[in-house]
Design brief:
Layout (H helix, E strand, L loop, with lengths): L4 E7 L3 E8 L4 E8 L5 H15 L4 E8 L3 E2 L4 E2 L12 H9 L3 E5 H12 L8 E6 L3 E7 L2 E2 L33 H4 L1 H12 L5 H9 L3 H25 L3 E5 L1 H5 L1 H15 L4 H4 L1 E4 L6 H15 L2
Parallel strand pairs: 1-4, 4-7, 8-11, 11-12
Antiparallel strand pairs: 1-2, 2-3, 5-6, 8-9, 9-10
Helix pairs in contact: 3-11, 5-6, 5-7, 6-7, 7-9
Bound molecules: zinc ion.
């Protein structure tokens, strides 16, 4: 064990992506399995099996990217919306089970860390990453350090209010007018169905827009303008050099979302951010969370 390899695990709502990662962010082996959500026991067992599959003597640490709130001081999970974790001592359990140091982080933070270390955010000290998939994940690097409140673990950028008393959030969020229900793939699918019928979805909407359909382009531009409201606020709070846009929907709809988003963002942002912030496409795709979890593992190893 020379400390050159770690296992990173991106625990998603439907699948577990695990990989052996090097300190330069290369994935040398990978394994994928379904996320079982019927009970905490079966979820933990699947996590262990994912790690078992990749474990070897050269693996020095584990890192987990988790899609829900964590207590980073104790390494315990809080109750989660999408996964059956209930105040579970995840860090301690995995450290005992595998005899390696374990690092935990929010999954969107892990993706931001990967882009910052080896992706589109290399060499930048302040960045905000927005992962636009079915939902919205947010990760922040601030002054050269991942932004990690002790309880909560990440920046819940999808749950800032952009419309007072607006659309309701889903799941356990009781909020209204939060950014998430306006800018995700799910929001695009709902808008597509309202405009083009029940068979349409975000993918169809993007294809129509690519083909020049004016209505589709207008819908995506409107989604982009909501995104710009959030981005302008994040520019004012975090003063990022870069705002990275990732996620399946964010990358696929980039050309239709970003002109409107940038226009609104620059209206809302104060100087100097208005003039300096750049909006950039994320580079690592769906591997970002897994690679980032690997970096979180090395962080835990090096902190020992
Ligand atoms: Zn919300």
């Amino acid at each position: 064990m020379d400390g050159s390899h770690a296992i990173g695990v991106d625990l998603g709502g439907t699948k577990i992506l695990a990989g052996v990662v090097t300190r330069t962010g290369e994935i040398v082996r990978r394994h994928e399995r379904p996320t079982l959500t019927d009970s905490q026991d079966s979820l933990v067992r699947e996590l262990e099996l994912a790690v078992d599959e990749l474990m070897s003597p050269d693996v020095a640490a584990l890192g987990l990217g988790v899609p829900g709130p964590l207590d980073l001081r104790t390494g315990r999970t809080f109750d989660m919306v999408n996964l059956p974790f209930h105040d579970f001592p995840l860090r301690e359990h995995m450290a005992e089970r595998f005899g390696r140091p374990v690092g935990l982080d929010n999954d969107a933070n892990a993706a931001a860390i990967a882009e910052w270390r080896v992706g589109a955010g290399r060499g930048v000290d302040d960045l905000v990453m927005l992962t636009l998939g079915t939902g919205l994940g947010g990760g922040v690097i601030s002054n050269g350090t991942p932004f990690r409140p002790a309880r909560g673990a990440g920046a819940e950028l999808g749950h800032v209010v952009i419309v007072h008393d607006g659309r309701p959030c889903q799941g356990s969020c009781t909020g209204r007018g939060h950014l998430e229900p306006y800018v995700t793939g799910l929001a695009a699918t709902k808008a597509a169905q309202a405009a083009f019928g029940p068979e349409a979805d975000a993918r169809v909407l993007i294809r129509l827009a690519d083909d020049g359909d004016e209505q589709a382009r207008t819908i995506l531009a409107e989604i982009g303008s909501y995104l710009g409201s959030g981005m302008g606020s994040f520019a004012n709070i975090f003063a990022p050099e870069l705002i990275l846009i990732g996620g399946g929907f964010g990358v696929a709809a980039w050309a239709h979302l970003i002109p409107a988003a940038e226009h609104v963002m620059r209206r809302e942002a104060l100087r100097p951010m208005r003039d300096t912030v750049r909006v950039v496409r994320a580079e690592l795709g769906t591997d970002a969370g897994l690679i980032g979890a690997g970096f979180v593992a090395f962080e835990a190893l090096d902190a020992q």
